[in-house]
């Protein structure tokens, strides 16, 4: 840990403190605050999702982490090291959004080039390239074919292989399943799950909320360049359960059921109870029937990440 | 070293894929074949017979002068058309690597921006240097074999041509990182090449320009910009074996210009957002 900056600690794979980017037009002088004081910390070995509507500043934030964009203010670290220092990027694998791999590369040639830039030697490349091609589901016959002939899904798989080639401790993926068919998406998700089990930290920037919900431990939602919401997926989607609506419930029973419900509301002669567990819901129904209270409805409820997201970014 | 090698190989791959390397190589090969053809027309009489092929058979010129003339012609070609072709062909190699979707991935690697740009620059220089060396060595070997005259000073063309190209490439690089426009990079670099023989006429300008300010501006421009014309003349003198001391000013002032341009390009590249 840097004694001068105690907030930065190597137990975090990524630490961003007040990262800000203001773009200024060279000719008109118009400024746009793309990212505004974003502070995040991603623990080692977790899968972290960065969400946000278009133009929220997600890609600029990722580019600032990787020093492709220079922050106007703030700082970032990878595993406790200053992110602007090139060696700090050694343990990082990155798959950019809208990548444009040079079409003169063959699959193998591309992996050799990016692997060499990551500091891999020839022996390691010869061993890892066939392994990675197989892992991402690219047949060996494509290894010597120019990437100009690859489909979008195949390019995405090759891009993932490129990001994984040097066995990174931190994987930063920008829309990793973009253009990949459903079977491929499941496959990529399986790969990511396996990597997480191996202790690799994954930072996922994606529009696929279902994918993020299924994959990530924690998320941050960016809106207008700022963190609108951050937390564990489990906590943010804790609204899952059952909503029971009944009428003409005696007041003592309302109080009794209200005590076991996670939330309840009474509107004139109608009452609504939210239960997290099915057992609690069934117990409540038994009591309502025993008291001859008409049950209007029993609805399973979910608070999906999508609902959380919409609430966070809506004015 | 490994990273530099990867960047150089990548530049060669791109030059090959875009037919730049092959185009220059084919042109060099055509020139070599042309000279080979000329020399093979009459090999019985050896080098002296070749003189007649150039329409000088009736005169008492010796073979050495003929060889010098051919070498001088090649040097002149390299400094005009050859240089223009090399700039035109390789001007896109720098802006292309800065394309969105490509540069972000390279920048995410544990490599400094200086290293990335210098690696690409070196690759670009080597692509052209390889072709120049191939052409010059090819012609030199053919003429040496057929005439028995081995003039090592002709090989100086490789060094001076590559040097001049390297200086001009720094202009391509700074414009490439500044505006990412291949067309503009080519236009301005060509403009400097065209300007060079004009600015080199300092003696004429001194006489024609009426005000001292105008003369100073002319001199200033002459000293600041790369001296393609002067270096070309210097090379011709060397190739023809003309005596006299070498004037180093065109070389060091052009080298200084190139160094400033390259330092500027590195400074801009290190500050840019992608």
Task: Provide an overview of this structure.
The complex is a heterodimer of chains A (315) and B (274). Chain A is an alpha/beta fold and 315 residues long. Helices cover 33% and strands 29% of the residues of chain A. Chain A has a six-stranded mixed β-sheet with strand order 6-7-8-3-9-10, sandwiched between helices. In chain A, strands 2-1-4-5 form a four-stranded antiparallel β-sheet. In chain A, strands 12-13-11-14 form a four-stranded antiparallel β-sheet, covered by helices on one side. In chain A, helix 3 (122-135) packs across helix 4. The longest helix of chain A is centred in the middle third of the chain and has 16 residues, at 182-197. Chain A starts with 11 loop residues before the first strand and ends with a helix. Chain B is an all-alpha fold and 274 residues long. In chain B, helix 8 packs antiparallel against helix 12. The radius of gyration of chain B is 21 Å and the shape is flat. Chains A and B meet through helix 2 of A and helix 1 and helix 6 of B.
Helix content of chain A: 25-40%
Largest sheet of chain B: none
Radius of gyration of chain B: 21 Å
Mean pLDDT across the residues of chain A is 89
In spatial order, strands of the major sheet of chain A run: 6-7-8-3-9-10
Please report which band the strand proportion of chain B falls in: under 5%, 5-15%, 15-25%, 25-35%, 35-45% or over 45%. under 5%
Which stretches of chain B are low in confidence, meaning pLDDT under 50 for 5 or more residues running?
none
What string, H for helix and E for strand, traces the elements of chain A in order? EEEHEEEHHHEHEHEEHEHEEHEH
Largest interface: A-B, 34 and 29 residues
Largest sheet features of chain A = 6 strands, mixed
Helix fraction bin of chain B: over 70%
Structural class of chain B: mainly alpha
Query: What is the CA-based Rg of chain A, rounded?
Result: 25 Å
- Give the averaged pLDDT of chain B, no decimals: 87
The span between the termini of chain A is: 39 Å
Shape of chain B: flat
